[in-house]
Design a protein that fits this description.
The structure holds three protein chains of three kinds. By secondary structure, chain B is an all-alpha fold. In chain B, 73% of the residues lie in helices and 0% in strands. Chain B is globular. The N terminus of chain B is likely disordered. By secondary structure, chain C is an all-alpha fold. Chain C is built from 13 helices and no strands. The chains are: A alpha+beta, B mainly alpha, C mainly alpha. At the B-C interface, helix 1, helix 3, helix 4, helix 5 and helix 7 of B face helix 1, helix 3, helix 4, helix 5 and helix 6 of C.
């Protein structure tokens, strides 16, 4: 089922949680709503579900306006952040709940209910837990039971609120992969909310990056990561170095340094923000060969797994820069702590600066 | 007042054996002894004296005090009053807690304060307000007399005064419990297609049953034992408008001490059963609040 | 009514709220306001005259001073009992913990006659004091005893949870910094307890001011000496002095409301005093 979200606004008192959200979700897609806490992503998810009503705008399911349709009739499955399992019912009864509360005419027989619940338990690989109560389960198990319960009513849309938020790191990774596989198997249109960029990049078909009640960018994970549309997205997705400067005739002027911009998106700007990913910085020994770049001292060197992280302080005293080199690169250029080096961005993204400063000032 | 029905947290055997926070043995035992002496003088002895006096003239006096016709009438009336007032307050408590704990609206804390109000009103005043409404000199007194309806100095007045003094118990118990449990489970039920009543019966009620029972137990103890408020509206007509506590008063004032304590022992037993159930329910309640993390 | 609330998918708000407000009005609000309307018909002068006769003033004095002393005793011993119950292990602790609530569960009339029996000159406790020339039952002292009894659980039950949640690490930190046990108690533990103590005190006091059942049997009820205000209301009612009874009731209601407000403020303060900024 396709979902169209049309100009949704929502306020809580004086706080404007959503400021005109507008995008489409294709049938069978797995979409992530990604953003920092308070950006309105959960509110949007609850509006799609029908747990909350928008002040204006429409939610269209498969071409039909569903905005005023009650959540009971929307045929959505909702997985709550803290699972909301019925604590006084067994796992079996939790999953069977949606079938048992149907009116007599459409309620499956006891036998059918049993068969279905067992099939779902098998799907989430927790057959042996059917007689347990929720408090006796681990976080990851609860998550999967909550999912099975939501799937029992055969929803046309599956909505998940921070599905991995309350789990520890290891379980989260496993469950992510598992959810991705499950979606490939079932192909039900799914939307999940997360504040974790890695989670969104790894699981989703498409990512909707939200900030302060607005959509910043929509795109495939690669696209969003490689070509961030706004300074916010740049900073929110992945580590990044931020430089202040200006653009003059296709040259970036950062402090004393002049750097040729490879693709001139911007020719001229009195004030600009430059974003450079730590792994897209070349670090050269300052050997006086006239390489134009940003001068810096190596303050610290740390080796993590396959990469080496350098903490660098700019020679003009205008803050710190982080660079990540592969082990090979690091070996090749033999920098040491205390050395003076020249930094040359391999790829640089320019945002001519608007009046407002970037939300996060120094990002590692 | 609210503390009476707050849910005390059970102390799961916190043994503080670490030296840094332990007093010397003599301090500990002095404090324990002081506490025990105080509790004995104010709680244990009053309870013990009820039974000791009740049986001071032997079993037969005890038994005959209980089966005497006025005593039986008092017992019947007390049961009747509790059987009317407790269920009414139960329904009220449920609906107040549903509205307050599951929805957001302005004026909520004012409403909670108003619900608490009867706890801070003197029992005598609690009775008096109904006399002012329905007594012969009261607002509706003339009308009621014309239609030959008796409320004050009759059973309806006793029921009303009892409802007033037990009014907050169930609501006070359920509101914090339902607030702590949140609305997630109810929302989940609705998303899964349950109707409002299905959600209430299948999800909400099972989750609050221990808290509900707790409120009912406290409410019932107060309903059966209320003295001041009922005393004002009862008229003390033997065999007709005397509840158990009022019957105890009459016997005591007639210097029929053994009989008074015999009847009082019924109420003391009720208190003991209430305390035992309360302890048990606190233990169950603790489990139902602990979120399923 | 639905303008009051924010949207929610849960049903039944209007029904539940409607019933709640109706029931609250019928049982509590309208009857209580009847008292004030009736009092208003007396006029200010009449009201003042009723509540300032010497007998009434004597009853106020007794009621408030006995309630104050009772609540004071309960504050000291309530803290002691809560401390002992939370911090120490001893035989029968669970039973003691349960029995603290006895004054909530035991009907006041039963408490009244048993306290009168124990604290009379021939009673279990009274006979210990009789040789010293101290009479407890049928004197103002008896009123204090009864009011101490009925207020006992309040302080214990407000202080106990605070003490249970108290971080032991704070005491360990104090000890590691060289504080003695007494210093730790006075400077580290007590400051966190006293909003709860004050709340417990106010609750016990408020309950004691209105108490009737447990007092009248032990008080002796001698006008000007051992007659409490609630009893005076009943006396006036029995003399068909409805106006007088109503005026007295109003004065007590006003006191109750002020106390209720104070208690709410205390509880709010206890919860929020460290969460500013």
């Amino acid at each position: 089922m396709s979902i169209q979200i049309r100009y949704i606004t929502k306020s809580f008192g004086n706080f404007q949680a959503l400021k005109g959200i507008n995008f489409d979700i294709a049938p069978g897609e797995l979409v992530a709503l990604l953003g920092p806490s308070g950006c309105g992503k959960t509110t949007l998810l609850r509006i799609i579900a029908g747990l909350e009503w928008p002040d204006s705008g429409q939610i269209i399911f498969h071409g039909v306006d569903a905005t005023s349709r009650h959540v009971r009739e929307r045929e959505v499955g909702f997985v709550f952040q803290h699972y909301a399992l019925f604590r006084h019912m067994t796992v079996f009864e939790n999953i069977a709940f949606g079938l048992r509360v149907r009116p007599k005419a459409t309620r499956p027989t006891e036998h059918e209910i049993k068969e279905k619940v067992l099939r779902l338990l098998k799907l989430v690989q927790l057959e042996w837990l059917s007689d347990r109560y929720p408090p006796q389960l681990s976080g990851g198990q609860r998550q999967r039971i909550a999912l099975a319960r939501a799937l029992a009513v055969e929803p046309k849309v599956l909505l998940l609120d921070e599905p991995f938020g309350a789990l520890d790191a290891k379980v989260r990774k496993d469950l992510r992969r598992w959810l991705r596989n499950l979606h490939d198997e079932l192909h039900v249109t799914s939307v999940f909310v997360t504040h974790d960029q890695e989670e969104a990049l790894e699981v989703a078909d498409r990512i909707v990056v939200m900030n302060a009640g607005q959509v910043e960018q929509i795109g495939a994970p690669d696209e969003v990561y490689e070509h961030p549309a706004t300074p916010f997205v740049y900073q929110f997705l992945g580590d990044v170095n931020l430089f202040h400067g200006r653009v003059d005739d296709g040259w970036a002027k950062i402090g004393e340094a002049d750097i040729r911009l490879p693709e001139q998106e911007v020719d001229q700007s009195d004030s600009a923000l430059f974003f450079v990913r730590p792994h897209e910085i070349e670090v050269n020994r300052s050997n006086g060969n006239g390489v134009k770049g940003i001068g810096a001292f190596v303050r610290d060197i740390r080796r993590y797994g396959a990469v080496v992280r350098l903490e660098l302080e700019r020679t003009d005293g205008d803050g710190f820069v982080e660079a990540v080199l592969s082990r090979e690169e690091f070996k090749a250029n033999t920098v040491r702590k205390g050395d003076e080096v020249i930094l040359q961005p391999k790829r640089i993204k320019v945002f001519p600066q608007a009046a407002e400063p970037a939300p996060i000032d120094y990002v590692i | 007042m609210s503390v009476a029905v707050a849910i005390p947290q059970s102390s799961p055997g916190q043994v503080h054996s670490r030296l840094a926070n332990r007093e010397p043995a003599w301090v500990r035992w002095t404090l324990i002894s002081l506490a025990l002496v105080f509790l004995t003088g104010f709680l244990v002895l009053p309870l013990a004296v009820v039974f000791s006096q009740a049986f001071s003239k032997g079993w037969s006096v005890y038994a005959s005090a209980l089966v005497e016709s006025n005593a039986l009438a008092a017992i019947r009336l007390t049961l009747l009053v509790a059987a009317i007032s407790v269920p009414l307050n139960l329904v009220f408590g449920l609906s107040a807690a549903w509205a307050i704990a599951k929805f957001d609206f302005s004026g909520k804390s004012l409403l909670i304060t108003l619900i608490d109000l009867p706890f801070s009103v003197s029992p005598v005043v609690s009775g008096l307000i109904y006399v002012l409404m329905f007594g012969l000199q009261g607002w509706f007194g003339g009308w009621l007399a014309d239609h030959d309806i008796k409320i004050i100095f009759a059973v309806p007045g006793i029921v009303m005064a009892t409802i007033f003094v037990t009014f907050p118990f169930v609501a006070r118990e359920l509101i914090p419990l339902m607030q702590a449990q949140g609305t997630d489970e109810e929302e989940a039920a609705i998303v899964l297609g349950a109707s409002g009543w299905q959600t209430f019966w299948r999800v909400t009620l099972p989750n609050i049953k221990w808290g509900l029972l707790y409120g009912v137990i406290l409410s019932n103890a107060r309903a059966m034992g209320e003295f001041g408020a009922v005393s004002v509206v009862s008229g003390h007509i033997r065999g007709l408008t005397n509840t158990i506590p009022l019957h105890v008063e009459i016997l005591y004032n007639e210097y029929n001490s053994a009989a008074a304590f015999a009847v009082a022992s019924l109420l003391a037993l009720l208190a003991l059963v209430t305390l035992a159930l309360k302890s048990f329910l606190e233990w169950r309640l603790h489990a139902s609040i602990t979120p399923s993390k | 009514m639905s303008v009051l609330r924010k949207n929610s998918v849960l049903p039944g708000f209007n029904l539940a709220m409607g019933f709640t407000l109706l029931y609250l009005s019928l049982i509590v609000l309208i009857p209580l306001s009847a008292t004030f309307i009736k009092t208003a018909s007396l006029g200010w002068g009449g009201f003042w005259q009723v509540i300032t006769t010497p007998r009434v003033l004597a009853s106020y004095k007794l009621t408030f001073s006995a309630a104050l002393i009772g609540a004071g005793i309960n504050t000291v011993f309530g803290l002691l009992i809560a401390w002992v119950l939370v911090r120490y292990e001893f035989f029968g602790k669970k039973v003691i913990d349960a029995i603290v609530d006895l004054p909530f569960a035991l009907p006041t009339a039963v408490a009244g006659i048993s306290l009168a029996t124990i604290y009379s000159t021939k009673g279990w406790v009274g006979q210990l004091f009789a040789p010293l020339g101290v009479k407890i039952a049928y004197t103002p002292l008896g009123v204090v005893v009864a009011l101490t009894f009925i207020g006992l659980p309040f302080v214990v039950r407000t202080v106990q949870p605070v003490l249970e949640e108290f971080e032991v690490e704070l005491e360990e930190a104090a000890a590691s910094l060289g504080a003695t046990r007494l210093q730790t108690f006075l400077k580290v533990i007590f400051p966190t307890l006293w909003p709860a103590l004050l709340t417990g005190f106010a609750l016990a006091f408020a309950r004691a001011v209105g108490e009737y059942g447990s007092v009248i049997f032990i008080a002796g009820n001698i006008p000007m000496v051992s007659e409490i205000t609630p009893l005076l209301i009943i006396t006036k009612l029995e003399q068909y002095d409805y106006a007088g009874a109503t005026a007295l009731a109003s004065s007590m209601l006003i006191v109750s409301f002020i106390l209720l407000l104070a208690i709410n403020l205390l509880q709010w303060w206890g919860q929020h005093r460290h969460t500013k900024h």
